Amino acid sequence: MGKLYVTEFVSLDGVMEDPGGAEDFKYGGWTFEIDRGEGDKFKLDETMETDALLLGRVTYEGFAAAWPSREGEFADKFNNMPKYVVSSTLDKPEWNNTTVLKGDVVEEVAKLKREQDGNIGVHGSRQLAQTLIDNDLVDELRLMVFPVVLGSGKRLFAETKDKKRLQLIESRTVGDGVAILIYRPA
Questions:
Q1: What's the angle, vertex CA 21, arms to CA 170 and CA 159, rounded to 5?
Q2: pTM of whole model > 0.85?
Q3: For the purposes of burial, counting CB atoms within 10 Å of the CB of 163, is it exposed (0-12), middle (13-18) or buried (19 or more)?
């Protein structure tokens, strides 16, 4: 059985939009303005321990446009591992080792967790992450909280069906005040 984690870059006010600057957000690339220090090693280690990626269509398309042309162990891992994209509109994914999950998201992801061994990582994919959190499919929530308030932008947390109690299992500060927080359902 797979363990599903959601990993996100977020601002102090919960904004996760365009941390890398590839979209058309007025603060795009905001994470590059703050030194992550050992946070880069955390992301590399996290990726090396991941056995499959699960992405929403928008994040998938951004990753598929960027990662195949990159080199290095991080890129090699992303490019070669199995990838699952949740989409009702994508028919022919071009990024190698990609499977499109159609139909009921909750059912498809629950099935994926039963069938996939190891760690399944969800990066970005705001809508998908919200659905997974709301339906108790997330085994770990890994946040890199950057010390900046953006004031606007798409936020990680939306309304949920019920409150979600979490247990902090790890916390540390890296670089220029970036907090790495890892939670599990309580």
A1: 55
A2: yes
A3: exposed
